[in-house]
Structures are given as structure tokens and as C-alpha cells.
Sequence to fold (157 residues):
Amino acid sequence: MKEVAYKTTFLSAQMDELSELEQSLLNEAIEATKRSYAPYSHFHVGASVLLDNGVTVMGCNQENAAFPAGTCAERAALFAAGSLYPDHAVEMLAIAARDTSGQLTDEPISPCGVCRQVIIETETRFKRPVRILLYGQKQIYVIDGIKQLMPLSFTEF
Fold:
């Protein structure tokens, strides 16, 4: 038996190093954090999706006392985009969060396992990677496709 290591690489950037489109998408995700309903965790997450037709769709986490009934910002945005624009591929997904004190997080947060699987399905559906932007006040991670976060995922793509 031998140990196998997988290496993930992605970019770490500052806001001014990103394109205007990427900055705009991140700003929408930041704005979406203000629409979050998080009375239990007090952790407010926002997401914004850019589609191949240039339309953006925002989403935010929605908590519920019956915890499985809530949803994450990433899924809210991706499912809304799929419902409103079923024939348009997702090009980018931006995610931002506010901590329990209401401040934007210093470091980027990454999608939960369920959201990662939804992103995998989105990439599989449209047979193209989704560029993922994870916002933090100190740095922004730029990830070219979910396989950077899920290297052993099961997909046809």
C-alpha cells in the first residue's frame, strides 16, 4: 500500500486584481449577505451566479428551526438560476459571508459538502467548469472549477 497525495492549486487575490465583472459579482454576493435569514447561526451567507447570457442571480442562506429545511446561499442562487434560466450555463459563482458579529469574514469561506455536490451537478449538466470566487476581506480565492475542491468527485464531465 502507498500513500497518494492530491494537490489543489488556486489563486489568492485582492479585489483590485480581479476583473470588473468578478468584482461586481462579489459585490452582489456581499449585498446578498444582508438578505440572509439566519436567526439561529447568525452567520449570513450570500451568493451570486453569473450565467452565460450575462444575467446574474443572487441567493442567501435561509435557516429554519427544523434545520434540514433551511438552505445555503449557494444552493439558493444555483437553484433559482436553474429555475429561471434552465438553458443557460453557470459561468461563475461568488460567495461571501458575515460572521456572528455582522462583519464580513476576514478569510474566505468555502461551500459545504451538499453545496459542493450541487456545483458538481451544475458543471456536469452544462459540461463546463464553474469559476468560484470566495470572498474574504484579507484575500479572495479564485478557483477554476469544483474539481479543485472535490478532486475525487463522481461525474460524467
Remarks:
- The radius of gyration is 15 Å.
